[in-house]
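Worked example

This section walks through a single chain of length 174. The input is the sequence exactly as stored; nothing has been trimmed or padded.
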Amino acid sequence: MNVITTTRRFVLREFEPPDADLFVAYQTAPDFAMFHLASERGEDHARRVFRLFLDWQLERPRDNYQLAIAALERPANLIGSCGIRQERCAEGEAVFGIELARSYWGRFRYAQEVSEALINWAFDTLQLSALVADTAFENDAVARLAEACGFVRTHADEKQWWRLERSAWHGNIT
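Given that input, the structure is written out below as tokens.
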């Protein structure tokens, strides 16, 4: 298992082929995709995306990291994924993202703990200068998460867009 970073309760690690069915299961749960476009739903889409995540691990130089989120005491138990994607971004910048399986939404600051660890890793290990993120207008919980992590809303089009500069990052892991 290739661990990227850990938190007090979680391990952020590379996806492995046995994770596919768990990934597809949470991706295709009826209420998971409530903020996703129709083209981003379904088992076929989830399997294509999972394959892409595995392919990114082989790229050199590597620009994209999509990581499995698992409980520290049970690293094979997938509860979501998170990522840093530099492809098609300005030099030193990347897109930040996190998703948890529906049964983990709103639980004990899980998303914030994972987000802070990933942000630290992106700024410290990848030496990025800024992260950007987008949220659906209806997803108030993710907007609150972005603000709690220090992201600032920059603009809106079909989504809300956020930005976090390295110089503004507080660097605290809960």
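What to look for: The mean pLDDT is 92.
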